[in-house]
Target: Carboxymuconolactone decarboxylase-like domain-containing protein
Amino acid sequence: MGKNIQEIKDVKGFLPRSVAYAERLNEDFGEGLAGFYKSVWAEREGGLSMKNKHLMVFAVACSNNNVESAVKIMERLHKFGATRAEIVDTMMIAAWTGGIQNFTDFSAAILKEMEKLGY
Model:
């Protein structure tokens, strides 16, 4: 297991499926994908906060009607201190960009997860 792959595994506690699959295909490909993953989620001075990055990916998941991913991201949003108002605003932006039908489709699962997390 390469350095980037091991670092991702250590930080997340598990290896993202995309990295695991890439490594199974080719170790260099796995290392490259793990490096890309690290770069995207790195905290940089003057860059987006982890909370804001997760709000963005939450909006994309919701607007693409990727309910399973959106529910998983809710746990990260909770961990990084996102407020109910921030989550609601993000859901409304997702409805704006993804269409009201997607909003209808993802809202039930998100509202259930929000209740579970105490929002």
Observations:
- Helices lie at 3-12, 17-25, 27-41, 50-63, 67-79, 84-98, 100-117.
- The radius of gyration is 16 Å.
- The first helix runs from residue 3 to 12.
